[in-house]
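> example.struct
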């Protein structure tokens, strides 16, 4: 193997190990990490509370996690808190369509918990349902966690 091939392979593996420290690059229901999601229990404590059109989702874990992506197709919008960002859902690149909203992390710091708020659209009658993707590290993640 030539030194050029070794360099190219090394760069590929470095990219794989770094992941997406700045949050999910697209609005998806499953990360594109090249490995299957975990099937074991995620061990999270998840609490969802609704009051006056504001829905709070509290996620806690005994084992810190590095990333999350929370999506919903319910009408309304996420309140973007500290170290969070809105992810645009466009339907491009096999992502979820424009009827979805999403919020994700902005850094790869370990997080023992996260609190996310969602403001329902005025007149909404149905409580929002959320889908959570939780990333402990690049190759350890859970998807399709319904909240």
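> example.seq
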């Amino acid at each position: 193997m030539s030194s050029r091939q070794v360099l190219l392979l090394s760069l590929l593996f470095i990219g794989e190990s770094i992941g997406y420290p700045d949050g999910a690059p697209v609005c998806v229901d499953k990360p594109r990490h090249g490995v299957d999601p975990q099937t074991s229990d995620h061990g999270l404590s998840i609490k969802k509370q609704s009051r006056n059109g504001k829905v709070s989702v509290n996620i806690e874990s005994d084992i810190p996690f590095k990333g999350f992506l929370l999506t919903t197709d319910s009408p309304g919008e996420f309140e973007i808190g500290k170290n969070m960002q809105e992810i645009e859902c466009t339907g491009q690149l096999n992502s979820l369509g424009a009827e979805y909203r999403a919020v994700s992390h902005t850094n790869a710091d370990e997080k023992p918990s996260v609190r996310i708020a969602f403001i329902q659209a005025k007149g909404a009658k149905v409580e929002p349902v959320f889908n959570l993707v939780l990333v402990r590290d690049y190759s350890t993640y859970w998807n399709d966690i319904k909240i």
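> remarks
Residues 5 and 11 are 10 Å apart (CA to CA).
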